[in-house]
Amino acid sequence: PKSSIGWGLEKDEWQREFGDSKFCLVVRGDSPHSHALWRSIRVGCIPVILADVLPVFAPMFKSTLNMTDYAIVLKEQDVLNNPEKTLLQLNSMSDEDIEVKINHLAFAQRVIFTDHPQSLFVPALLKEAQMATEVQL
């Protein structure tokens, strides 16, 4: 499938193509989080996360959001062993499954971003704080 890592694209062209993408690759750096994850959620591109540990060790708003509802999490070892086969499996997703991910992604945008016109950031943050105080150590 047509894909790009942005090499040789002007900034405006890169932003347009990024925003028009169905899937956005999210590769971890020195921590499970990545700026690519935030960018993909912001533009409404389904994050394809290549870090099995991200949902376990660094979930966002874990009492409000389930990362696998709006993202696809791939096993790093599968991608390392056979990147083409693993990534081409995305083409087999049905339009209905993609629509469900996009709807969950729209909700995640409202929870995560404070500047969203219908932001749910404050209620979600308060819910997280309440859940944290209820945890028994």
Describe this structure in words.
The protein is mainly alpha-helical and 137 residues long. 51% of the residues lie in helices and 9% in strands. It has helices at residues 11-19, 35-43, 54-57, 67-70, 76-81, 83-88, 95-112, 121-134, and strands at residues 23-27, 46-50, 72-73. The chain has a three-stranded parallel beta sheet. Helix 2 (35-43) links the parallel strand 1 and strand 2. The protein is globular, with a radius of gyration of 16 Å. The N and C termini lie far apart (49 Å). The relative contact order is 0.13.
Condensed summary:
The chain is mainly α.
Task: Name the descriptors.
137 residues; 8 helices; 3 strands; 51% helix
Strand and helix map with partners:
Elements: H1 11-19, E1 23-27, H2 35-43, E2 46-50, H3 54-57, H4 67-70, E3 72-73, H5 76-81, H6 83-88, H7 95-112, H8 121-134
Parallel strand pairs: 1-2, 2-3
The span between the termini is 49 Å
The helix/strand order is HEHEHHEHHHH
Share of residues in helices: 40-55%
Strand order of the largest sheet: 1-2-3
Number of E strands:
3
The assembly state of the depicted protein chains is single chain
Cα-atom radius of gyration: 16 Å
Q: What overall geometry do the principal axes of the alpha carbons give?
A: globular
DSSP summary: helix tally: 8
Low-confidence stretches: none
